[in-house]
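Two proteins, back to back. First:
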Amino acid sequence: MKLTNKPYITIITPCYNEEAILGANIQTILSYLKSKEEKYKWEVLIVNDGSIDKTGSVAEKIAATENSVRVIHHPHNFNLGNALQTGFKNAEGDIIVVLDIDLSYSVEHIEVLVDTLIQASADIVVASPYIKGGRVTNVPFFRKIMSKWVNMFMRFSAQDKYYTFTCMVRAYRSSFIRTVNLKTKDYEINPEIMYKAMILRARLVEIPAHLDWTEQMKFAGKRVSSIKILRGFFSGLMAAFIFRPYIFYIVLGVILMILSIIETGRMVIATISNIRECISNHSIACSFKDSFIQQFIDNPFPMIVGTISFLVAIQFISLGFISLQNKRYFEELFHLGTAIKKNQTI
């Protein structure tokens, strides 16, 4: 679908138990979009992900008075991944912008995301607080550090080096994101999209963004929903593993192989030293074999550690090459599945 001179954008806002902030923040989004009506055609799609508070009723009241607002309700909490996929399937716009309802990324990011996507002919534009020019304000220290480390780990793991993989605030070309087969149900959907976009050689662009928790901190204790930090951290680590799993196997295998060489080397050096001492004492039994056996009897630890490390290293390196082959098979099948899905949507 080609973009017109006046792009049609859909703002997707996944919500779970956001009664405390939904009404005010949707009005902020609407006020901003109304100020851009000469530039964009737009709609707001609220995905109520099975909230157990009054989020659904608040959303319906807004939709009843605003023709540009639609609401989709999940009967249960299906988590972020499913909420985003629901939004992608039901969005009517040529461009989709996902916005966090807490507005930790301000509404001003919408215009920058959309304009960058159009000007760069990109498929995805990611708001990144960690790229040069981006910044983070009033985010709790522990959460900020964990987020930075997870994204750094993903940057190390990924073949294409981006700075932010976990941020939900992005712009998507609808014709692209609808053809991507997604399976993740929770927060891991954001790095999954990045990973699969890289496989498809999609054009990804990062823009500097401002992550600001100033307003969020005012609602401490009033919002039922919260992102579980440790769960998100470990989910991020596991998501990083999918980028290039063979790297982790091979690196671990090489480390163990180095340990094996070090421990075996210690045995050989000790054996040679023993032979020299034996020769200087004019002893008859000075063979390498006898000296080596004696070293093993006196100190078996280096030999045992070296042998076990060598065997385990071989196993990990072998797993690395197997996972590399499996990754290539997966990417080929993913390309094929995407091509089939794309043909079905035409």
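And the second protein:
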Amino acid sequence: MRRAPGLLSAALLLACACQSEGQAKPAAAAEGGASLHRCTIEIAERGAVEPFEGRASGDDEDAVLEAAWADVCAKLDAADRDACRDESRFDVTISGSTSMIDGAAIYAKTIRLRAKTSTFKGEGASKATAAEACAAATVAACAAAGASGDCVAAGTHLKRGESVSSEVVSQRGGG
């Protein structure tokens, strides 16, 4: 199969032009631009995001469901146990299966609870690094949650989301 020499030359020129343009951006940044890193962090209280599970099995489906509820409720802190079945406080997922053994049904149920909680966001910016911007965002999110310092590192809160962006901003003066 023969190729037209002009087509191959055009493709090579286009590839070189794209590569050169991609390399021009760092040079422009070095000539008067600086990076600005922004970070947004979302956190929640540690206990609020960890799910609790209760399991039970047996030959009476209603009794198995009640036993699964008793199991999951027993795993909650004492202050939350009375509200265990309150769907305004917990997201509830119930799953189960039925097996037949020698003609008898065996039921298995799993109940998973996750406390409904507020999340808190913090934003940070840095001219140095994205990590520095995210550290500032984490402290801001912790402050919004009523905690001081880096509550994620302290273990009282969990990070639920992170968004990072970096851009080159011009530092040329007008004159």
